Here is the input.
Amino acid sequence: MKTTATIPFRRGEKIRRDLGETVDVGTLRIMLMHASPPADEVMLQEGYTGYAQCPWCGHVGWASGLNVTRPVDIVCGHCGRYFRA
Ligand SMILES: [Zn+2]
Here is the structure.
């Protein structure tokens, strides 16, 4: 049984919309509430699927479409705020 503490994840960086930073809605990903991949998750989507951590609330969740070469914008499924990871 793995725990999120032992699984590598990408630490997010806050997107400060209150400071005028913009979110790229075209590539926006949703980080799931779950700390494990959905059972029906398949690797059909472009990019890398794995864990990311919300810098606002510290939630670690499963996110698809992470990019190994370039950070993508993500909305946290727990607190609903935006970050980049
Ligand atoms: Zn959050």
Residues 12 and 85 are 4 Å apart (CA to CA). Residues 9-84 form one domain.
